[in-house]
Amino acid sequence: GENVEQHPSTLSVQEGDSAVIKCTYSDSASNYFPWYKQELGKRPQLIIDIRSNVGEKKDQRIAVTLNKTAKHFSLHITETQPEDSAVYFCAASIGRTGNQFYFGTGTSLTVIP
Amino acid sequence: GAVVSQHPSRVICKSGTSVKIECRSLDFQATTMFWYRQFPKQSLMLMATSNEGSKATYEQGVEKDKFLINHASLTLSTLTVTSAHPEDSSFYICSARDSGYRPYSGANVLTFGAGSRLTVL
């Protein structure tokens, strides 16, 4: 089955700096890669996603890049703000209907004011 | 956007009792729902995939007789923790995917419930 690895497990950045979180996956059949943000005690919320037919996607301060050949994808947050502090999870999904989602182990991001 | 309601948000029960957690998709139909367990500061561990009208698919190591899943309608899946013990105390989260397939739109998007914190005394 699919194996998703996520690094780093913890990340601290100064406010205004950029943060990068990286994930790798093992199954080349994976074709959908969402990123979720989970604040303490709350549900994971989708913040951005990318499909395998696209190499990069950007939404304001958040961007995701995908390298299908290397089987890795990354989350980039620019101009970080304290409210970006949360746990971020990457995931990989296989198939058009995506009936299996495999999550990374999570990255706890702390933005220091 | 899609909304998933999960109830109860918190439950405390005595050891040996059973607890039912509900997961509802409020504005979409979900033939598939997922149940996760999350330990403090850890990732989401998929427990089982709930399939409407058929048996759930359990992940390796998850006891199907312990964690009963019923997906009787396109908008409701339930997880029952039977004969709960303190080691079952955890945060349980459900998620659902909109069954309506629209190419290159939100077909694969997972929406999560708010989670249920179970404490077994």
What composes the largest sheet of chain A?
6 strands, mixed
**Largest inter-chain contact set:** A-B, 26 and 22 residues
Quaternary organization: heterodimer
Low-confidence stretches of chain A: none
Compressed to H and E, one letter per element, the order of chain B equals EEEEEEEEEEE
Give me the Rg of chain B, rounded.
14 Å
Q: Report the average pLDDT across residues of chain A.
A: 91
Structural class of chain A: mainly beta
Describe the largest sheet of chain B: 7 strands, mixed
How many β-strand stretches of chain A?
Answer: 11
How many helix segments of chain B?
Answer: 0
What is the first-to-last residue Cα distance of chain A? 41 Å
Shape of chain B: globular
β-strand amount of chain A: over 45%
Salient structural properties:
heterodimer; A: about 110 residues; mainly beta; 6-stranded mixed β-sheet; 5-stranded antiparallel β-sheet; B: about 120 residues; 7-stranded mixed β-sheet; 4-stranded antiparallel β-sheet; about 50% strand; globular
Quick summary:
Chain A has 113 residues and is mostly beta strands.
What can you see in these coordinates?
The complex is a heterodimer of chains A (113) and B (121). In chain A, a hairpin with a 4-residue loop joins strand 7 (62-67) and strand 8. With 113 residues, chain A is an all-beta fold. In chain A, the strands form two sheets. In chain A, strands 2, 4, 5, 9, 10 and 11 form a six-stranded mixed β-sheet that branches. Chain A has strands at residues 5-7, 10-14, 19-24, 30-38, 45-51, 56-59, 62-67, 72-77, 86-94, 101-103, 107-112. Helix content of chain A is 0%, strand content 57%. Chain B has strands at 4-7, 10-13, 19-25, 32-38, 44-51, 57-58, 67-73, 76-81, 90-97, 110-112, 116-120. The mean pLDDT of chain B is 88. Chain B is built from no helices and eleven strands. Chain B is mostly beta strands. In chain B, strand 4 and strand 5 form a beta hairpin. At the A-B interface, strand 4, strand 5, strand 9 and strand 10 of A face strand 5, strand 9 and strand 10 of B.
